[in-house]
Amino acid sequence: MKKDFLNIIQAAEYLGVSKQTLYRIAGERKIVSYKPERILYFTEEDLKEYILKSKREILVYNKGY
């Protein structure tokens, strides 16, 4: 059976950040989280969406050639 939600430790590991960083990001409402009672949960879809929203564009430099 597939788990639908990741806890803070699993989500932080998925994103490659510390728990404290993920708490801050969630507290700033930069990532979707769910908080029944006092525990934060995340979905893999929401984590992927956060990563995709953080996309950085490629810079092209004109070297004058």
How is this structure best described in words?
- The mean pLDDT is 90.
- This protein is elongated.
- 42% of the residues lie in helices and 6% in strands.
- The relative contact order is 0.19.
- It has a two-stranded antiparallel sheet with strand order 1-2.
- Helix 1 (8-15) crosses helix 2.
- By secondary structure, it is mostly helical.
- It starts with 5 loop residues before the first strand and ends in a 12-residue tail after the last helix.
Mean pLDDT: 90
- Name the strands of the widest sheet in spatial order: 1-2
String of helices and strands? EHHEH
Low-pLDDT stretches are none
- Give Rg in angstroms: 16 Å
> Into which percentage range does the β-strand content fall?
5-15%
> How much helical structure, as a percent, in the residues?
40-55%
Biggest β-sheet strands, sense, barrel: 2 strands, antiparallel
The total number of structural domains is: 1
Derived structural class = mainly alpha
Give the tally of β-strands: 2
Number of helices: 3
Q: What does the overall shape look like? A: elongated
Q: Brief description of this entry?
A:
By secondary structure, this protein is mainly α. It has one domain (6-53).
Question: How would the blueprint of this fold be written?
Answer:
Blueprint: E1 6-7, H1 8-15, H2 19-27, E2 41-42, H3 44-53
Helix pairs in contact: 1-2
